[in-house]
């Protein structure tokens, strides 16, 4: 391998460690792509790699930063670091573990601090020493961590959210209750159903042909029901984080109960975490990885809801959708968005539930600007924290359209 | 009209022979890229419009049942053997080829296959596409495996109404197209409508830039701004005025609340200085 291809494949490995879907095929493709462009021109070089290696808009942003650091920055310290020297697969493996170690380290600190409210301040530089001890190949490790720490400082920090396992079985029970309870559409038409109330004469008769004309197995018919789809939008701002700790296990329980759930977190930006919740390793609770602006910062409820409508509304806001918003309504963003977004959601979904933990406080009045603006569009305004309360909430939810 | 990233992406599609996935907001010219590619290669553009419920029968192939039935009736009197009849019925002439099959069986040169708005199709269909995109072949039980004569250039577009699977993304090159900036939009308008004067093009582009910054439900795309410019030309407006904008608001605002918001912004003079 010549210098460029080594450098490019090191770059690919770094991107892979950042969550890019890059396999051997992609590395090969990127090298092939480079043979078709004029690599003495930086734009062409960068563009070719970008087109091959990225697979979403978000990744393109990360790519540009990484590219800048990897190929462009002419820092003296960079020249002295031999991070491109590694060609042996062992080095590659060791790199992987090093990043994981530092991530775990950061996560543990987070746990110690406030449970789910992962500490983002644990920067990778402080973890560097720890990782180095474990790594066999010290020099390369330093290089890689050095690189990781530089990238980390330039974009929103990652956080890990843990889901507490206590009371999970009770939460699941409450979630099942909710799914059973909220059955929206009841068609007028009668269709064959296992637990129908009426005898389906025609089908019973037809089936009796198999048994020589004796209707041994009756077929029942009843009204067709459709289970609701749930969209959970959870406010993860700093003021909400103790409550979100209670809510996320419920969200997790709900995703385990039914397929038709979508879960989002928002603070100043919206983040879809459905797949992260569903893809927890078998037998283990999922750990959510989010950026700082999606968790634990200030809140822009209106903008977040609005971007939800714009990005996902067409698909997720349907007449069988129940939208559950969990927030204290303390919106620090532009107030023009919230009423419009709420109106839109109300129009397009079947029911809007707003859970506000502040309701627990005696004498609480929804006086916050955000809460006041959203109130007219809410069907159920309540609060729930423990499994019992979620179950009670489920019982009161008899939304039918 | 294409800028450097777009040109590079099309270049790599030809060089690497990998499908290209284009994402971006509605009306920024994603579909146009495929058309441009087909035009520049002087080849056929085959388009598959995706929608919810799209199935193999309408994407790949279907037997022409009516014709088969007629044929059977006509052959009834002939004493041909059963095997012969069967072979006749399941031959190419009874096969209705849908876009994907057309792309594979194109005779002369590799066509451009545009799979439009792939995010609208179901996930199952997406999975089915994977096979086709990876191998460029498919199997019709009655006829056998059909392999592409020329590997088509495949372009997929998506509006991001749903996340596409990683498997599909991995198989594709990726290009994100955003709204054009002021200069580019003015250039597009002038290229598309040669009769437009520079000033009007610049005014339209400037207003579009402002509009896209507003919190609208449906931000106008390039397609809308071209429509609008065309409408203004038809009405013989040589520059924007309050009245001109209000008359032609329907060209680029397609939502009642947006309409009111924009109207208010125009009235109060926030949007443009007229």
TrEMBL record, chain B:
Domain AAA+ ATPase residue range list: 16-178
Transmembrane regions listed in the UniProt entry: none
Alphabetical list of Pfam families matching this protein: AAA (PF00004)
InterPro entries in UniProt: AAA+_ATPase, ATPase_AAA_core, CbbQ/NirQ/NorQ/GpvN, P-loop_NTPase
Domain of life of the source: Bacteria
Protein name: Carbon monoxide dehydrogenase D protein
Species classification: Bacteria, Bacillati, Bacillota, Bacilli, Bacillales
């Amino acid at each position: 391998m010549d210098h460029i291809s080594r450098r490019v494949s090191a770059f690919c490995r770094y991107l892979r460690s950042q969550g890019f879907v890059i396999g051997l095929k992609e590395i090969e493709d990127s090298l092939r792509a480079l043979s078709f462009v004029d690599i003495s021109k930086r734009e062409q070089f960068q563009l070719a790699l970008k087109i091959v290696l990225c697979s979403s808009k978000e990744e393109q942003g990360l790519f540009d930063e990484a590219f800048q650091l990897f190929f462009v920055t002419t820092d003296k310290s960079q020249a002295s670091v031999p991070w491109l020297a590694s060609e042996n697969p062992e080095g590659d493996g060791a790199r992987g573990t090093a990043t994981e170690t530092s991530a775990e380290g950061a996560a543990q600190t987070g746990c110690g601090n406030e449970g789910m409210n992962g500490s983002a301040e644990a920067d990778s530089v402080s973890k560097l020493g720890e990782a180095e001890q474990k790594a066999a190949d010290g020099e390369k490790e330093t290089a890689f961590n050095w690189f990781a720490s530089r990238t980390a400082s330039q974009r929103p920090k990652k956080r890990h959210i843990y889901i507490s396992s206590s009371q999970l079985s009770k939460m699941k029970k409450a979630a099942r209750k909710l799914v059973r309870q909220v059955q929206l559409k009841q068609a007028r038409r009668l269709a064959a159903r296992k637990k129908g109330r009426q005898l389906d004469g025609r089908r019973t008769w037809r089936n009796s042909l198999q048994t020589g004309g004796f209707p041994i197995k009756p077929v029942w018919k009843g009204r067709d029901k459709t289970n609701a789809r749930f969209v959970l939008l959870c406010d993860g701002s700093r003021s909400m984080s103790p409550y979100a700790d209670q809510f996320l296990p419920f969200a997790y329980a709900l995703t385990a109960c039914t397929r038709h759930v979508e879960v989002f977190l928002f603070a100043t930006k919206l983040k879809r975490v459905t797949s992260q919740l569903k893809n927890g390793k078998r037998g283990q609770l999922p750990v959510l990885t989010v950026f700082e602006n999606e968790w634990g910062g200030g809140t822009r409820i209106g903008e977040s809801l609005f971007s939800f409508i714009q990005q996902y509304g067409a698909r997720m806001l349907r007449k069988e959708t129940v939208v559950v918003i969990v927030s204290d309504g303390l919106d620090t963003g532009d107030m023009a968005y919230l009423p419009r977004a709420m109106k839109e959601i109300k129009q397009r979904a079947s029911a809007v539930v707003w859970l506000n933990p502040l309701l627990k406080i005696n004498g609480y009045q929804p006086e916050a600007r955000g809460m006041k603006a959203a109130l007219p569009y809410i069907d159920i305004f309540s609060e729930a924290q423990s499994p019992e309360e979620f179950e009670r909430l489920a019982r009161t939810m008899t939304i039918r359209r | 009209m294409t800028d450097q990233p777009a040109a590079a992406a099309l270049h790599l599609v030809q060089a690497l022979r990998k499908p290209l996935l284009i994402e971006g907001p509605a009306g920024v010219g994603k579909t146009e890229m495929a058309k441009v590619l087909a035009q520049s290669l002087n080849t056929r553009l085959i388009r598959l419009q995706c929608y919810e419920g799209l199935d193999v029968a309408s994407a790949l192939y279907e037997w022409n049942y009516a014709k088969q039935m007629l044929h059977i009736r006509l052959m009834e009197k002939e004493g041909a053997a059963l095997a012969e009849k069967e072979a006749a019925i399941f031959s190419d002439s009874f096969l209705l080829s849908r876009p994907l099959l057309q792309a594979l069986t194109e005779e002369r040169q590799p066509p451009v296959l545009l799979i439009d708005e792939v995010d609208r199709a179901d996930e199952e269909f997406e999975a089915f596409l994977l096979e086709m995109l990876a191998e460029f072949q498919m199997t019709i039980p009655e006829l056998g495996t059909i392999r592409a004569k020329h590997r088509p250039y495949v372009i997929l577009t998506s509006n991001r109404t749903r996340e596409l699977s990683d498997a599909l993304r991995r198989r594709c090159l990726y290009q994100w197209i955003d709204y054009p900036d002021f200069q580019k939009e003015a250039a597009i308008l002038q290229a598309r409508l040669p009769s437009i004067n520079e000033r009007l093009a610049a005014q339209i582009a400037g207003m579009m830039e402002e509009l896209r910054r507003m919190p609208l439900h449906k931000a106008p795309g390039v397609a809308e701004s071209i429509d609008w410019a065309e409408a203004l030309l038809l009405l013989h407006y040589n520059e924007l005025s309050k009245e001109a904008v209000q008359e032609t608001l329907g060209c680029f605002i397609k939502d009642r609340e947006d309409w009111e918001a924009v109207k208010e912004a125009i009235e109060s003079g926030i949007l443009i200085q007229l």
